[in-house]
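FAQ

Q: What does a record look like?
A: Structure on top, sequence underneath. For example:
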């Protein structure tokens, strides 16, 4: 296993209080980096901070409540990171979830909300942290995107469309920021265990009489129905490992690219 020492490096992770963001924070802290996470839910953020401090008691960690769609809050978060750590080397843009809707039942407001979330959850943090990244010796930005960007689903029309736009945005940013030595990449996730899927499982439990499937049985059956070759959902840690690779100097000659983390679910070549 490749080891890398990120001591004296600073990683910022949006949506870092749970799921993929939380798992990514763990990896960076384990590698010796200082880590700043943010999230909208104060209670969840406090719990994440407490758990990270338990696991890494001496690690430099900052947790701040922040809505990445609010420019003032994002700028305030960036100012806190600068005050605490004095630099930023890696930015992981990880925020947002999928919207289940078809074209027929997606309202104008729903379209706007979805496009606003998918674009500005990247645009605002990138804009706020860009001055610090420009001063870093090996800066990188990584965005969590979805396989929907290349493989749209009719029942997720707004999310699929927005995800395709994010793929283009990442490529454009990579080209524009290359002269500044800032690498910009993304991961394309398929179905990864998340709070959203856990909520769907709870709805299943509420509606299903005994005997009920366990979480493992339920997700395995869904994976079979969706024809995921590896036969299971992905784990947050597996997506985090791809983010860690792209954000760290391990991928120093990679920009404007993406890593597929979908268990073989991708149908394109």
């Amino acid at each position: 296993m490749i080891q890398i020492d990120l001591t004296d490096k600073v990683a910022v992770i949006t949506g870092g209080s749970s799921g993929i963001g939380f798992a990514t924070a763990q990896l960076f802290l384990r590698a010796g980096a200082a880590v700043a996470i943010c999230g909208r839910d104060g209670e969840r953020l406090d719990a994440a901070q407490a758990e990270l401090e338990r696991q890494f008691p001496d690690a430099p960690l900052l947790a701040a409540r922040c809505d990445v769609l609010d420019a003032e809050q994002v700028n305030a978060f960036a100012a806190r990171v600068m005050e605490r750590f004095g630099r930023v080397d890696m930015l992981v843009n990880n925020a947002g979830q999928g919207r289940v809707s078809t074209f027929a039942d997606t309202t104008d407001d729903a379209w706007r909300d979805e496009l606003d979330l998918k674009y500005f959850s990247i645009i605002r943090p990138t804009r706020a942290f860009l001055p610090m990244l420009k001063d870093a010796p090996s800066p990188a930005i990584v965005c969590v995107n979805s396989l929907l960007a290349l493989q749209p689903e009719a029942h997720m029309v707004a999310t699929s469309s927005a995800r395709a736009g994010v793929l283009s945005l990442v490529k454009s940013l990579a080209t524009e920021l290359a002269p500044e030595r800032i690498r910009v990449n993304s991961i394309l996730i398929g179905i990864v265990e998340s709070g959203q899927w856990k909520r769907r499982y709870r709805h299943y439990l509420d509606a299903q009489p005994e005997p009920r499937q366990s979480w493992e049985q339920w997700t395995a059956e869904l994976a079979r129905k969706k024809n995921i070759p590896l036969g299971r959902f992905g784990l947050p840690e597996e997506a985090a490992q791809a983010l860690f690779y792209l954000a760290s100097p391990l991928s120093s000659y990679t920009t404007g690219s993406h890593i597929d983390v979908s268990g073989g679910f991708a149908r394109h070549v």
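Q: Is there anything notable about this one?
A: Residues 65 and 177 are 28 Å apart (CA to CA).
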